[in-house]
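Dear Dr. K.,

Following up on our conversation at the group meeting, I've run the structure prediction for Xaa-Pro dipeptidase from Mesorhizobium muleiense. I'm pasting the input sequence below exactly as I used it, so you can double-check it against your construct before we proceed with anything downstream. Let me know if the numbering doesn't match what you have in your notebook.
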Amino acid sequence: MALHFERSEFDARRDRLMIEIAEKKLDAVLLFAQESMYWLTGYDTFGFCFFQCLVVKADGSMILLTRSADLRQARHTSIIDNIVLWTDRDGANPAIDLRNLLNDLDLLGARIGVEYDTHGLTAYNGRRLDEQLQTFGQIADASGIVSRLRLFKSPAEIAKVEKAANLADDALDAALPLIKQGGDEALILAAMQGAIFAGGGDYPANEFIIGSGVDALLCRYKAGRRKLSKNDQLTLEWAGVFHHYHAAMMRTVLTGKVSKRHQELFDAARAALLAVEKAMTPGNTFGDVFDAHARTLEAHNLTKHRLNACGYSLGARFTPSWMDMPMFYQGNPEPIAPNMTLFAHMIIMDSETETAMTLGRTYLTTESQPKPLSRHDLDLIVQ
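The predicted structure tokens came back this morning:
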């Protein structure tokens, strides 16, 4: 089987989930997030764009309901032994198949947790699921159970993230020689993604962000490419990915002369990131980390040019986003603890002068100060 962890690792994860199920007095949980299925069993697919569900009972037994296209996928990539198929046909309602499966598992009248908050369960399918379960048993929202377990990384997972971070550095190294006057965004993007593939990495859970000129102020990918001018700004946000584990980075790279405004924004971004590092320690919360970012940018008179979040957890994620929870935003009470992999990004977009500046990297939290996972320094990059 194409497993990326030892069986003992999966057993430990199952045991952690069973403890949560018991504490929440559930008889079973219905998992729809692909991240949850991958973390718990190794099951690796993009088939979550259709209806599929991993049923986990309180005794740790698991059974997957999926389509025929994913039968071999599940057998080859996961530790799941029991797989049931629902059939593609006109008028098919796999929620009925799931209800029948739960009945076969002697869960009628049971207390069942449902992982609602995921792209693996659309609103349409969620409504169909609720229709089938409303009289079947006691239904509880179990959305955050597995996602919070995934927040704390095992040594084996940390090794994956460290490999991903090396690939992220390789991508930047591949891009830098191409960032110059006349440089083509298409070639830069191809070099970055190519370096990750060549290093044994994977597709990211969302597109790399690339934009120059005015488009350097955008925080999302968009279609269309341009070539760099003599004095230009190029914003890049990308992630090294290894076995679906992500390590993200973000930089705004300049060509030609550094404007006064670019230098001001960079100095602020660097100061904010260093303040965030100091706050990213046990005893503080995710909200405290955001506050460190916000106070620093306020001191530089940049409050109106910053975002309302400055980073998030990273791990094994699937389309459409590599962003994981929790995030750094105001008032988030989640405590910082060791063995988290966290991406902090300082994003300053001055639309008044059309000046962009970003700076971000991934960290491993420890018992004290966090460990940066990139080998690159935090100096302003000018080509």
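Two things stood out to me. Residues 155-175 form the longest helix (21 residues). The radius of gyration is 22 Å.

Best regards,
J.T.
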